[in-house]
Structure prediction request, 477 residues.
Amino acid sequence: MNIQRKYSLPNCTLLLEGLSDVTRAAHFQEMRPELSILVNAECYLSGYNQPLTGGREFFESLVRAVSGYAQEFLSSVPNPQAHNQESELVEFQKIDSNRHRLIIHSEGTPEGFESHSNNSKRPPIEIDLNTVQLFDLVEAVDQFFADTQTLPELSLELQPVTRRYGGASQALIRQVVPAAVGVSSLAVAAIAFNLIPPPQMRPPQPKPDEQTSSTTKSITPPASAAPTPIAAATPTPTPTASAKPEVKDLEALLNTVSEITDPSQLRALNRQVYNQVHPAWTNRSRLQQDLIYRLGVAADGAIVGYKAVNKEANQGVGQTPLPNLLYNPANRAPISNEPIAQFRLVFTTQGVLQVSPWRGYARTPEVVGAKITDSNITKGLNQKLYNTVRQTWSGTPTFTRDLKYRVAVNKAGVIADYEPLNQVAFDYFRETPLPKMFNDIYGSNVAAPNNKEPLAHFQVIFKPSGKLEVTPWQGYQ
Prediction:
């Protein structure tokens, strides 16, 4: 199984691709398989069109050099780990207080990068970074070390620099802290000045026996296999000694974790998936074929995995926002054996996004949450909602079919939730006052619905003729 792990910052992204070692993977009941064999590493830096690429040796050298140089830069105490040209593929050189040269000694220079060496056989790659780019790279490396399901045997030893050797001034600290946008990067700064003890980034893992090691080396990626991300939430169970079959897709995964099948919960999650993907899909005119994916979604709406259903989807995943929407273990509490829901996601050539439960609905869904059922109260709220929407809906409609919505209000008549019920309602929702009404209260068009109090639900229909209809909710059709 090809696995991808991505660690993203505004100015830097690390993308790791590899495999699970079936001789060591003992947690296939987990949502998130362990990436234990690194096949390819890519480092994308803002301002450069081509990534830095390499294998295990390149990646290990990169993380050592990045961490060593960050400590040196903050403490002004030389760290040989950042400049070890003899034994490392990657090294750093300080140009000035805001410029840092990243040097990669490799056999080839990717297109788009400049080489300053006269050695035509193995020219080094030299990239100049500013301090903000540097610390985004530092934080991306920190995100990797915080992910215990990726190369768990790789650890990093950071040693604090004694204060009496530190030459950095308070002015330098003030300059660097704004650039270090991540919490982990600030921890590196604290280590450099001996302000806190060095953290245990990752405890060393016991090495497998000789037989396991030889088996590990024999596992190679299929020549024709394209990476199919199935990254998921970070579980935290205790390792067991028994090995289980390799998980190949979401369907196999569901043999070891429970699946969310309740129609009402699926309906709510369906909306959350749409609200995540729809605004993030910006390049809608490039598709030559529909791209179809099978999604795994946690109970809180986090997209924990996806699998291409058709060939075009496997090749065109870069034209979708899915890689950027995958759950990042550094930004969310760990997930352990949580149930997941499955959805069918289609990016159509017409630029329309389609989301539906993978197995459909077993029965008609219901609205989740407490409801206002008193007929006298709902009658008054019905009229109040009609008046509010009627007063704010103006202009000449451009749609030619009815826009149907479910709209919920609290006992004061304030909108608490709204949901499109047909595709045209998704496409033309900005011609209605509903998103503005919702945004004015919650600060977002896609905020989670207010379900902490009983709500009255209504069906609201905007007609092409300009007529408005508001009727009590009778349920999903």
Remarks:
- The chain has a mean pLDDT of 75.
